Amino acid sequence: MAVKVYIVYYSMYGHVEQLARQIKRGAESVQGVEAKLWQVPETLPNGVLHKLNAPPKSDVPIIEPDMLNGADGLIFGFPTRFGMMAAQFMDFLDKTGPLWLQQDLVGKPAGLFYSTGSQGGGQETTPLTAITMLAHHGMIYVPIGYTFGHCMFEMEEVKGGSPYGAGTYAGDGTRQVSEIELLQAFHQGNILATITKKLKDAA
User: Fold this and answer.
1) Could you give the CA distance from residue 12 to residue 148 in angstroms, rounded to a whole number?
2) Which residue positions in the chain have pLDDT lower than 50?
3) Helix, strand, or coil (residue 118)
């Protein structure tokens, strides 16, 4: 049976979704892995989204919390709000209580990716504060560490991401995800899928 990796995310301006699509490609570069994109539900009214100049959502399907159990590995992505995950994603996680009660996610490998508005806006605090969710579910956190090689030490351009996971800077919403950030996202998908496959094959 194929190894299933779910990339579950919330994206307001599209930056996190761009990373998610590259992560999917990276995961699918591992033989025997099927990767699927999922969005968490929006919690803001359309009127508020319009005032924030948020573009329409893509056609990526909406996931319900109980569907997480169908994955062998998971990668969660979200923009930051005050150095932590956006409320939309927290709202989704708050509904995973039944999964926690049944211990359905214990032992599943999981990664994190994110976007922030500025260089000091949470590229490390966002994944650090999100790790608590993985710990309470008993999931196996899979960071990328420094496996991205020399690109982890890039100093000539503004670059999101960290050893904790792929990242990007959204700025005021108009900045586009850079090529090196997309490459890092692809790499993260490959790393998570490789480890997920190893664990499933060894089970």
Assistant:
1) 27
2) none
3) coil
